[in-house]
Amino acid sequence: MTSADKPWLAHYAPRVAPEIPAVTESLPRLIERTVTDFPNAVALDFLGAETRYRDLGEQIDRAAEGLRKLGVKRGDRVALVLPNCPEHIVAFYAVQRLGGVVVEHNPLYTDRELRHQFEDHGARFAIVWQKIAQKVLDLPDDLAVGVVVSVDITQGLPASKRFAMNLPVKAAREAKAKIWGPLPRGAMPWEKLLKNRRISQKVPRPEASDLAVIQYTSGTTGTPKGAMLTHANLIANATQCQAWIPDVKRGTGIVVYAMLPVFHAYGLTLGLTFAMSMGARLVLFPAFDPDLVLAAHKRHPATYLPAVPPIIDRLLTRAQEKKVSLAGITLGVSGGMALDVSLIEKWESATGGFLVEGYGLSETSPILMINPLTDERHAGSIGLPVSSTDAKIVSRDDHETEQPPGEPGELMVRGPQVFSGYWKRPEETAAVLRDGWFRTGDIAVMDERGFFEIVDRIKELIITGGFNVAPSEVEEAVVALEGVQDAAAVGLPDPHSGEKVVAAVVMAPGAPFDPVAMRAALRENLTPYKVPREIVQLDELPRNMIGKVLRKKVREQLLQGEDQQA
């Protein structure tokens, strides 16, 4: 692909390099260089409790030595089941220091959801939020999770907040109950890892080509699977983010807000790799709470605020209610779902900064495209391919014929951030990777200037509030309910979350249909954002000639029903 085939290069902001250097180092070198360059800068800000880079580096080294003593070695998978907290960042880099493979998990997953992932990746070591550690300890013996390290995230809070949580008043007890639980029997306290000496420099570091992270995604087929990301993939994507802001230098007081979970690919790159590579202050929120974000904004306004549209909308609304100015936020980057033009206008009016839309997938570390930080940015588009990234629109019929500008087709991409494949799924890997090109499963168009817009999806993935939901996973849980004979899960438009999960069910003859009770039962097996917002009863589900449920037809049928009700 020549420069003539890349019309987007002409619309890059000034000084954005079209290519980034080849990655030759691994993640431990990235964090070690930042610790050396900016030892006294604040690395982590957890609701006001600060950790400087020199202390972060020491904690990583001590935790790595502790994990080494426990038996973690190069290539071992280590499950992290943690919210955003300082220990998450330390644990991530401690595992990387040993050449281990981090497997990220949503700590709010149900027992069933966690079991499925542990069955797939087979990690024998886990570092877990203490409040939910018993879930991991209760996994079946055949999964052989031999070591569970328990993290009490209240230990990372400012002393004043820890004191307030222990006051004998109802509000304090309720606040503590949300984030704390007792140390379970059989788990090792996190603090024990940090009592080790620093790891020896003689312990080898991983190579750039080594596997660093297994990131679970619904992929292009709607079935959850582990995307394998190397050290080079993750560092390349952080470098591409740096290249997009050429006038911002490392260690210049940059503030990055981690409102998105770092167990999610988007939060991982913007928080764990980009922020750390820039010597930034990473402001960590255990969960999105607009009041906590506004309090942090008063202390240190964000230079970079990665978010999804529902978070942006809620933050704007709350700031208006509390009469808090959002001025000073330099750049908001939105992903995960389409960004409404009116929201851009409201945000930029309130902050005086930019709000641009980007696009990516877990398989691409995840960032592929961002709008330029100039007046050329194109609201409603996902922007331009980032440096060293090729993109093309191909015919859905043969995946070889390139579509001309303005004609829709499947978006295919190539670049150093593209993953190496799915964990233990060679056939599914082969289906999406072709000669270095990755099939995104999204239908897009490119205009004459090289701006891309997503217009449809081949994959049946549901995207709600920026989170991916596999229809098959929801359907499995729904069909397991008593009286349900058949089910299909689809995404329907929602003004707040982009899409809402809706389940269509066929009940067994004589079985009662009680959607309220069904949703309550589903909360036992599905994390909240996967629980269908609505459950609709149908007489039958449309199927093709071989009996496969046609989810697209189900979706059309439900949309028609909504129109008739309206």
UniProtKB/TrEMBL annotation:
<feature type="domain" description="AMP-dependent synthetase/ligase">
    <location>
        <begin position="32"/>
        <end position="423"/>
    </location>
</feature>
<feature type="domain" description="AMP-binding enzyme C-terminal">
    <location>
        <begin position="473"/>
        <end position="548"/>
    </location>
</feature>
<protein>
    <submittedName>
        <fullName>Long-chain-fatty-acid--CoA ligase</fullName>
    </submittedName>
</protein>
<dbReference type="InterPro" id="IPR025110">
    <property type="entry name" value="AMP-bd_C"/>
</dbReference>
<dbReference type="Pfam" id="PF00501">
    <property type="entry name" value="AMP-binding"/>
</dbReference>
<dbReference type="InterPro" id="IPR050237">
    <property type="entry name" value="ATP-dep_AMP-bd_enzyme"/>
</dbReference>
<dbReference type="InterPro" id="IPR020845">
    <property type="entry name" value="AMP-binding_CS"/>
</dbReference>
<keyword id="KW-0436">Ligase</keyword>
<dbReference type="InterPro" id="IPR045851">
    <property type="entry name" value="AMP-bd_C_sf"/>
</dbReference>
<dbReference type="InterPro" id="IPR000873">
    <property type="entry name" value="AMP-dep_synth/lig_dom"/>
</dbReference>
<dbReference type="GO" id="GO:0016874">
    <property type="term" value="F:ligase activity"/>
</dbReference>
<dbReference type="Pfam" id="PF13193">
    <property type="entry name" value="AMP-binding_C"/>
</dbReference>
<dbReference type="InterPro" id="IPR042099">
    <property type="entry name" value="ANL_N_sf"/>
</dbReference>
